[in-house]
């Protein structure tokens, strides 16, 4: 789930709250959450938080000690800031990483703050790399990312010129960074494009409309989060989706019933009237069941 708007609002809120805070301790109770071993996580201790920022769907936590954390929330991780240290036993998630801040009474009422990386999925997927600051941009997770989808992606004609469906191309982080299973449906609906149209078949005006839909849709989500999301960052973000997960409901633009195609680990939702010239795409799950 966390895609560009969700990661961006997380970075903004945490950056605003933590910039300059001294790091008292850093521990990783989560098994296998750390993908690196040198420098150790403890290298953060005694230093302060310089910034928390986003690249693609990754969070980067920069510290003054020349050490940074590169975090990927994957589908069910959350990075949350609490005013109190670990409370009652938490059964809804697993604690992967815990960073305690030493606030020394500089901010009243926030003297026991704790940043927690929690995993809400059944499998552990969220991960952290502890890297020397100068090595962050060269890490393969970032070095292989395509251009940012927001706020100013390059023209899409060339970028998406491949014989692959738009739904797959837009979610490919090496092609364009930040879009995943949820927002891709909203973007394609906004641009009135079929999820199965091939990138190489995009007409020039369609490429322009698609770029506008990407910037507009992700920007609007972020604006909505600026109003609705606050620290500690909720377990579930109130995603302002209109099409994704809304199959069976009327299209907000034309009233036609929204349809969906189910795959093993994702669902494509779309409006047949607005996007596929009235055609209802084959639901592979259904056809498998009926076979
Ligand atoms: Zn429609």
Give the amount of beta strand, in percent: 15-25%
Largest sheet: 4 strands, antiparallel
Radius of gyration: 21 Å
The number of helices is 8
Task: Classify the helix fraction into a percent range.
Answer: 25-40%
Low-confidence stretches: none
Q: What is the averaged pLDDT score?
A: 93
Please provide the count of β strands.
Answer: 10
List bound small molecules: zinc ion
Query: Terminal Cα separation, in Å?
Result: 31 Å
Query: What structural class do you assign from the helix and strand content?
Result: alpha+beta
Q: Tell me, what's the shape?
A: elongated
Strand order of the largest sheet: 1-6-7-5
Structure description:
The chain has helices spanning 4-18, 140-143, 156-159, 166-171, 181-190, 204-228, 272-275, 284-290; strands at 22-27, 49-55, 58-63, 67-72, 77-82, 94-102, 114-119, 127-132, 259-262, 267-270. The chain is an alpha+beta fold and 291 residues long. The strands form three sheets. Strands 1-6-7-5 form a four-stranded antiparallel β-sheet, with no helix packed on it. A four-stranded antiparallel β-sheet has the order 2-3-4-8, with helices on one face. The longest helix is centred in the C-terminal third of the chain and has 25 residues, at 204-228. Zinc ion binds next to helix 7.
């Amino acid at each position: 789930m966390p895609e560009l708007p969700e990661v961006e609002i997380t970075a903004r809120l945490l950056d605003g709250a933590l910039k300059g805070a001294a790091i008292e301790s850093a521990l990783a109770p989560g098994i296998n959450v750390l993908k690196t071993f040198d420098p150790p996580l403890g290298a953060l201790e005694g230093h302060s938080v310089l910034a928390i920022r986003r690249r693609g769907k990754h969070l980067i936590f920069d510290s003054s000690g020349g050490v940074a954390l590169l975090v990927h929330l994957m589908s069910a991780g959350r990075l949350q800031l609490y005013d109190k240290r670990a409370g009652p036993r938490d059964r809804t998630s697993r604690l992967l990483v815990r960073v305690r801040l030493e606030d020394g009474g500089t901010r009243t009422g926030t003297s026991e703050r704790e940043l927690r990386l929690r995993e809400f999925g059944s499998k552990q997927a969220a991960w952290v790399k502890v890297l020397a600051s100068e090595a962050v941009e060269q890490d393969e997770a970032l070095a292989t990312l395509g251009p940012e989808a927001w706020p100013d992606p390059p023209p899409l004609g060339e970028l998406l010129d491949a014989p692959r469906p738009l739904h797959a191309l837009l979610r490919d982080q090496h092609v364009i960074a930040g879009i995943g299973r949820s927002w891709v449906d909203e973007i394609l609906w906004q641009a009135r494009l079929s999820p199965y149209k091939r990138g190489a078949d995009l007409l020039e005006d369609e490429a322009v409309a698609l770029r506008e839909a990407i910037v507009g849709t992700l920007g609007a989500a972020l604006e909505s989060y600026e109003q609705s999301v606050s620290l500690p960052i909720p377990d579930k973000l109130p995603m302002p989706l209109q099409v994704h997960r809304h199959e069976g409901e009327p299209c907000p633009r034309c009233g036609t019933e929204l349809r969906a195609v189910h795959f093993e680990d994702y669902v494509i939702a779309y409006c047949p009237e607005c996007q596929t010239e009235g055609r209802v795409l084959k639901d592979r799950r259904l056809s498998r069941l009926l076979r």
